[in-house]
histidine kinase
Amino acid sequence: MEIRFDEILNRLDIGVLIVDKNYYVIYANKKAKEIFNLDLISPITCYSLFYQYSDPCVSCVKEYLTPEKPEAKLTLSLGKKLYLIEYRYFSEDKIMIFIRDMDEESYYKNSYFKLLENIPFLIIFIKKGKIKYLNSFSEKNLGYTKQELFDKTFTELIISPEERFNIEKTFNEVLAEEKEEEILINLVNREGKSKTYLGKCFAINDIDKEKILIVSGMDVTEFLDLRQRLDNIHKTQSFGSFLRSMVHDFNNILQQVGEYLKDIKENINNPQKINKYLNLTEKTLSSWIDLNKLLLDYTKEFREIEKKRTEIIGFMKNNLELFQLIAGSHIFIQFDFNYLSSAWVPGDESFWRYIFLNFISNAKDAIEGEGTISLIFRTKIEEGEKYLLIFIKDTGCGIPEEYIDKIFQPFFTTKEKSSGLGLFLVKSHINNIGGKIEVESEVAKGTVFKVYIPLVEVKKVEKERKRPEETYIVLVEDEEEIRKNLKEILEREGYKVYAFFSGKEVKENLEKIERADLLISDLHLPDIKGGELYQILKQKFPNIDVIFLTGDIFGLAELPSNRVILKPFSIND
């Protein structure tokens, strides 16, 4: 039996040692002798073979191998090879030790997957769109087992429908270009709840040289919820003061319009003066529209600046009366254009009216009693680029040094009735058109803002005004005068218009509407919300677009910025 047992062990492709209770090797098979170059002529302990120690590692062995734990596994590097060492009780006074060759790459791969299993992040392997692996964290967060998700299509199973297209596009780009991409994805778990993960996706080659997409991410749902709540707190706390800070300007505009109307009444028989006051009234009302756009900026954070150009010198001259009106009678506004007769800059006139109203309003608040606001225009070449340099200089109280670096931060203010957003928005907009702002100030002497604006070339090309292609518009507005005026203007521009005063009237005449390309509707009609009316029309006309009209400033943040016009507005809007 002993000969047969030895023959069997010698045929094994693993090393086998049997040691006594003192850890001396009393048997070694052929493979073990090869591994350790062992002849067993001299007594030797297992720990001498494994660790080249002169003292036994009894405590170590006892930690892993006890009668209650009759087996133990360790990995050990011997020479340049890696081995798996298994200890097993052979009898009460003998231990059998198995020494197995390990593929080092396989070992580290196994260790890698153990690491993936325990890491507290989402880890998903995707091959040809199918899930091939997900770690324990993914199982727990998504509510599915590995077996349930294995070989399922990743996007169809857990990505919300509206994100599928963008996610698939990103995945395809990563696979095609072999690049790493940051992603923010919303995954829906078994219960239908969405969680947001911030992470990366990248591609590797598997054993058969096919691409595997690896998606990793950390759960940032709570963080985003917290940030949103903090943003809402800021909005809620500041929006009231933001509106209050604008009421004064609104009242100034209304008061001035009233004065102009009174002047028109008093000069009813003087056409020249009537024309003058009508022009002033129109400019003043334009500033009301610009203030409405300021509200849109606030609720949408940033307004996309149209790719238009403004001749700024002529614009400033045309708006002098308005700027003086905002500054008040005790503050003198003066222009200094030097030799500049014209200068073209990015942005439309509404944009620049908004920018200068902010600067003038701030300068006005800084001046106690009488003072001066100077607007100085120069050209400057910097790093090969030609800029218009605008100085906005006031004789106000100045800005303390400790506040200079904070004045462009959102919500920073030292004024009781200020939102702290004006200069933040101004700087953001100036940066968006390729400019920059610098500021210098001295307490009790005044402040100078330096605004650098890239100059642009404008070629005047006479373009024939094109009439729109045949477009059918459904106009719904409960205010009769607004509805009639809009219908008249739109029809004059060449549009076909169906005009209604309520949602009920639209429903009653729905069969008569043969075509509808665009809905222009009051956001809050007496009998229906504009959004609901849009969905009704969309069922019959799937490609219909929409523009909402509203005077409700509190509902602006819920609407896409390109689908809302705030009342009052101009036809150009």
User: Anything to note?
Assistant: The domain at 108-219 is CATH 3.30.450.20 (Beta-Lactamase). The CA atoms of residues 6 and 29 lie 7 Å apart.
